[in-house]
Specification:
The protein is mainly beta. The protein has 2 helices and 14 strands. The chain is globular. One of its GO terms (cellular component) is cytoplasm.
Length: about 150
């Protein structure tokens, strides 16, 4: 079983509230979302594993069991072309849970006209594969969001 923890501080809001049909419809997988605190912060790895995909606005870490977890920093933030994001690791790096991956500012994302909401998704999983799904309440970096059976 894999425990997926929050990559940042904020409020759990659940995927259904994400203003993007790909995420709200769980088309890439089930999970939850975080409405982040506005101050600049580091988005951290939600699991131990290898960074298999890395963009300024999103990253995927695959754990030793082969589970891929996507963290997407804001909605439509690909349009920012990396402005306001700083990569702290490289694709292919082995990372530990809680290790900083991307430095960013949710407030800057919001000021650009985009939503700062951050989906945290279990890629290619079925909804019934997740347990303890956190969809409301305040979360700190490192708090459990869900377990993947």
């Amino acid at each position: 079983m894999t425990t997926v923890t929050s990559p940042l501080r904020g409020r759990a809001v659940g995927l259904a509230t994400v203003p993007d049909p790909v995420f709200s419809g769980a088309m890439v997988g089930p999970g939850t979302a975080i409405d982040p605190r506005p101050e600049p912060s580091d988005a951290v790895s939600p699991v131990d594993g290898v960074v298999v995909s890395l963009h300024p606005h999103a990253f995927v870490v695959v754990d030793p069991e082969g589970h891929g977890v996507l963290t997407h920093l804001g909605i439509d933030t690909v349009q920012l072309r990396g402005a306001g994001f700083e990569l702290l690791v490289s694709r292919g790096d082995t990372v530990t849970r809680g290790q900083a991956i991307v430095r960013w500012s949710p407030l800057a994302v919001e000021e650009s006209g985009n939503s700062p909401i951050c989906p945290v998704v279990a890629l290619d999983a079925s909804a019934d594969a997740l347990g303890g799904l956190r969809e409301e309440g305040l979360v700190e970096t490192g708090d459990e969001l869900f377990s993947w059976r």
